[in-house]
């Protein structure tokens, strides 16, 4: 019936060829109104690009911070240990080994199972990291090292676990790893180079602890999915769409009213 309507429209205007739905759509007011009501998938994608770009920038910033804070805490705790305990051979290896172990655990299958308990222990560890700075009483060696290294382990594992959980699809892994590398370099440079030059005391450790609290409360955001062609704004509801097919046998145009689902 739709094919007859198209042929009738062509005959009504005196055309000796089948009606072309693209070139001659104005000749059929019914088809014209139906076509104008269809959403433009390319327009939907163009309108979603600014939102997707902002979400991508926010995600990259979160990845960089999740990598920067543990790297900064590594340098800050190492500085505090070496200042208070003196020249102990290879003392710096202990916090470095703990930091690298958190990376390995966070991106492994074990890290997924540890993520819940570690997230619950992270506030306790952040509180413990304040104690060596807030207490004026002298500390013995083992509790001092245990509090700093244990706090570093729990906080770094929690942040690296959040970083592993925010791993994007394969198409965006290059930006993900680049943000991790940039964040680690920035955090290490802040605690190892910038902070000793601008702060009169060991202020980088409390600053990084506060930053860890803030970043831990920063929820992950995913970019909005782009609508697929043939759907109406990507809302998942079936929408009418006109499908034109050409039969090469008789060179007629067939018009069908169909629907699409996201």
Distance between the termini: 28 Å
Number of helices: 8
Tally of DSSP β-strands: 2
- Point out poorly predicted stretches: 222-248, 250-262
* Largest β-sheet summary: 2 strands, antiparallel
Q: List the secondary-structure elements in sequence, H or E.
A: HHHHHHHHEE
- Approximately what portion of the residues adopt beta-strand conformation? 5-15%
| Overall SS class | mainly alpha
Rg (CA only): 31 Å
Sheet with the most strands: spatial strand order: 1-2
Please tell me what the overall shape is: globular
> Averaged pLDDT, please?
75
Helix content: 55-70%
Structure description:
- The chain is mainly α.
- About 65% of the residues lie in helices and about 5% in strands.
- The chain is built from 8 helices and 2 strands; from the N terminus they run ααααααααββ.
- It has helices spanning about 1-10, 30-35, 40-85, 95-105, 110-135, 140-165, 175-200, 205-215, and strands at about 240-245, 250-260.
- A two-stranded antiparallel sheet has the order 1-2.
- The longest helix has about 45 residues, at about 40-85.
- The relative contact order is 0.17.
- Residues about 220-250 and about 250-260 have low confidence and may be disordered.
Task: List the keywords.
8 helices; 262 residues; mainly alpha; globular
In short:
With 262 residues, this protein is mainly alpha-helical. The protein is built from eight helices and two strands. Strand 1 and strand 2 form a beta hairpin.
Task: Write the SSE topology.
Layout: H1 2-12, H2 29-37, H3 41-85, H4 93-106, H5 109-134, H6 141-165, H7 173-198, H8 204-216, E1 239-247, E2 252-260
Antiparallel strand pairs: 1-2
Helix pairs in contact: 3-6, 3-7, 3-8, 4-6, 5-6, 5-8
């Amino acid at each position: 019936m739709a094919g007859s309507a198209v042929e009738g429209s062509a005959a009504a205007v005196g055309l000796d060829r089948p009606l072309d739905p693209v070139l001659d759509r104005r000749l059929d007011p019914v088809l014209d109104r139906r076509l104008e009501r269809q959403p433009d998938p390319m327009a939907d994608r163009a309108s979603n690009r600014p939102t997707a770009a902002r979400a991508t920038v926010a995600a990259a910033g979160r990845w960089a911070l999740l990598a920067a804070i543990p790297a900064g805490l590594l340098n800050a705790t190492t500085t505090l240990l070496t200042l208070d305990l003196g020249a102990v051979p290879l003392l710096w290896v202990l916090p470095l080994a703990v930091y690298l172990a958190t990376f390995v655990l966070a991106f492994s299958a074990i890290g997924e199972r540890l993520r819940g308990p570690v997230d619950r222990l992270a506030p306790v560890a952040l509180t413990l990291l304040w104690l060596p700075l807030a207490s004026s009483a002298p500390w013995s060696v083992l509790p001092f090292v245990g509090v700093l290294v244990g706090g570093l382990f729990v906080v770094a594992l929690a942040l690296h676990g959040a970083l592993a959980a925010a791993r994007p699809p394969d198409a965006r892994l290059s930006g993900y790893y680049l943000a991790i590398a940039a964040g680690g370099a920035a955090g290490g440079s802040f605690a190892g180079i910038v902070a000793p030059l601008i702060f009169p005391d060991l202020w980088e450790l409390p600053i990084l602890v506060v930053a860890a609290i803030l970043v831990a409360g920063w929820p992950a955001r995913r970019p909005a999915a782009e609508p697929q062609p043939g759907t109406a704004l990507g809302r998942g509801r079936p929408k009418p769409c006109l499908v034109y097919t050409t039969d090469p046998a008789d060179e007629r145009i067939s018009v069908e009213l169909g629907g699409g689902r996201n």
